[in-house]
Write a structure and sequence with these properties.
Layout (H helix, E strand, L loop, with lengths): L1 E5 L5 E7 L2 H4 L5 H15 L58 H17 L3 E4 L9 H10 L7 E5 L4 H7 L5 E5 L5 H5 L3 E5 L3 H9 L1
Helix pairs in contact: 2-3, 4-5
């Protein structure tokens, strides 16, 4: 697969880059993509939710009223779930939502996501992303020149660039990440994927390793 290399200002450099077909031009596996995104989102959950059960509520244990003669049902402690302020029945407990996913499934999912972006024309290769000073205005101008001002864009760079990160953080539609942080969720969660030439080998290593 051959793609043109553009500048950060949206101009054609006159160069092309060759992308391996076994990574960027495969038949997408939708189920692998689903599993990897599910795995990523599940791992982000803290799982610290908790409600108190009957034995954990700090309330008196005295009997609410006498056993017989009231015409009502028998009721013991004020910790009962039937009484307001009592314990919760089968409430949530702290748990770990993460689950194991095979490396080959992750690799297939990432390759599938990249192939989907390539086939839809949403993947763009840039020669580099550099900004002389941290200015949101400069980054916004480049987005307009790249025809991505009104689209959710993800910029993948090889190493963190302070000026680039500071310039993009106030833009709701743009996000900058390191190539080593790229995952299936980030790929599928953007309308336009911009990858620098220097970041391409790192992206490929995430799939072939």
């Amino acid at each position: 697969m051959e793609l043109k290399v553009l500048t950060f200002e949206g101009e054609d450099t006159g160069r092309t880059v060759q992308l391996p077909d076994e990574i960027f031009c495969i038949e997408p596996n939708a189920h692998a993509v689903y599993l990897d995104i599910k795995h990523y989102l599940a791992s982000q959950r803290q799982g610290t939710h908790k409600t108190k059960e009957r034995g954990e509520v700090a309330r008196t244990t005295r009997k609410a009223y006498r056993q017989k003669g009231t015409g009502g049902a028998r009721r013991g402690s004020y910790k009962s779930p039937l009484i307001r302020g009592g314990g919760t029945v089968f409430g949530p407990k702290p748990r770990d939502y993460s689950f194991k996913l095979n490396k080959k499934v992750k690799a297939l999912a990432r390759a599938s996501a990249l192939s989907i972006k390539i086939s839809s024309g949403a993947l763009v290769v840039l020669d580099k992303v550099e900004i002389p000073e941290p200015k949101t205005r400069i980054f916004a101008q480049s987005l307009r020149k790249l025809q991505a001002a009104d689209k959710k864009s993800l910029f993948v760079i090889k190493e963190p660039e302070k000026n680039v990160i500071l310039s993009a953080r106030n833009l709701k539609s743009a996000k900058v990440i390191n190539a080593s942080q790229l995952n299936t969720y980030e790929i599928m969660n953007c309308d336009k994927l911009f990858v620098t030439e220097a970041a391409l080998p790192v992206v490929q290593s995430l799939i072939t390793r």
